[in-house]
Write a structure and sequence with these properties.
Elements lengths: L4 E2 L7 H24 L24 E9 L6 E3 L6 E3 L8 H10 L4 E4 L7 H19 L4 E8 L7 E5 L5 H12 L14 H12 L6 E4 L17 H10 L4 E7 L26 H4 L4 H7 L5 E4 L20 E7 L3 H10 L2 E5 L3 E10 L2 E4 L3 E4 L7 E9 L14 E8 L16 E6 L5 E3 L2 E8 L6 E8 L19 E4 L2 E5 L1
Parallel strand pairs: 1-2, 2-5, 5-6, 8-9, 9-10, 15-23
Antiparallel strand pairs: 2-11, 3-4, 6-7, 7-8, 11-12, 12-22, 13-14, 13-16, 16-20, 17-18, 17-21, 19-20, 21-22, 21-23
Helix pairs in contact: 1-2, 1-3, 3-4, 5-6
Length: about 500
Amino acid sequence: MGERVEGPEPGLSRRQLMKYAGVGATLAAASTVAGGNASWADEDDRGAAPSSGGSGGSRGRAWRAGDHHIHSEYSGEFDTSVNPPVFHKGADAVYPIVTNAIMAKNFGLTWAMCTDHGGPTHSKVNLEQAYPDLLLSRRLVPDVLQFWGMEFDAPAMDHHTLMIPRHDDEARMLFELESRFAKHDAFPSDPGRDTEPKMVEFLKVAKGMSPKPLVIAHHAARSASGLGVWGQDTPHEFRNGNNAAPDIYVGFEGAPGHQAGPLNGGARGGYGNYPTHGGYDQMTAQVGGLWDSLLGEGRKWWITATSDSHVHWTRGGSDFWPGEYSKTYVHAKQDYADIMDGLRTGRIFVTTGDLVRSLDVSATSRRKTVAVGETLTLDRRARNDVEIEIRFRPLGGTNANGDRPEVTRVDLIVGEVTGPVSDLDAATNPTTQVVARFGPGDWQRQGEEYVVRHTVRDAEASFYARVRGTSTDELEPAADGLESPWEDLWFYSNPVFVRIR
């Protein structure tokens, strides 16, 4: 990993950004004509991958930034005084799909996904109205791979990404899952859809599909009333879902969207009960917390960072454009299937404010090396010294706020992997700790990258290692207030596992 980072650099002025928003509205009008007559099979989709979903090897992979949680004008409202309900665009989010794609490209993203809210009979709206607009947007902005999916109304839980693999029947796949399982899609409403067993049933059905979709939880602790006092999403629901479909239900947002909230007097992430820490959900930000508890079981459970863009903060919203502030980097080819494979298998790091442009974490022992998302297996009978190498590449220019962010510290976090827990609501891993903190005097420069190494001596128990870094002087990310999000930047890697057997 770490050879290249592909994608355009941010560079449009505020006036140009607003002009693009206007262009998007014009293009949306065109989509009413073009989309209505477009044949799905005739689409010229340069990025489409074979329907098998295979990644085809690692050659050509680079860190590619994206966003899997973006809203368009199809996050609207329904008039339920009539039957069937009548859908109206633009009630909750205002931008056409193509506008989001244009802005994603401008801010350096090479893949993106609109995830619009559901509602009564919304599955039909997605199929008949939103999907043709997506096809047009793919043609108009071919440099950005644009996935199909939605913000799924998960039974008994908060919203989730439902990402559909790129294939000829992608529209029908989403229609089947949304119409059968989204808790708000039925009209009249059906309370039987809003249960934990229904969520597990949904995941099992998704697991049986080919190619396989992906499910990632959104703003998981937004409804939590305190530190470790959970709301809609609970640890046992994550575990039961991951047990039912471990290759489908693979993680949650580490850094939720709505990060521009403080710029208009609101809370980062819209977390009005208990705040984010450094812009990250408490489930991720607390060392030894829920994420570490899941990793300590050996679960392949990943974190991402998204915009959750509805309305830009300059228009009174709480949002940044896709890629303007938060990025999810996947080590992949510019290929639908390989990007989805990277998300599924954890070849991911996340950053805010463009603090870094690449982040590689590897574990090496006895001439074997693995990277994030992978497992290094060693023999317990031998002496096992494991070298953890961290490589990162700072931005080297200005971010979307015109700042030149600097990494002030990098932390190596290690926890033991002890296997499944008996308490499905367990939310701590007491073995997890920051084992090393590195400042500028500790890392070496190699070309455009900075490198730091740490050796775990004579490892006798299985463990995982993950990395975070910051632009601040905080030893642990503090609970967020109304500080500017641009002054509080963090990046996180996903873990590398070491199995001692």
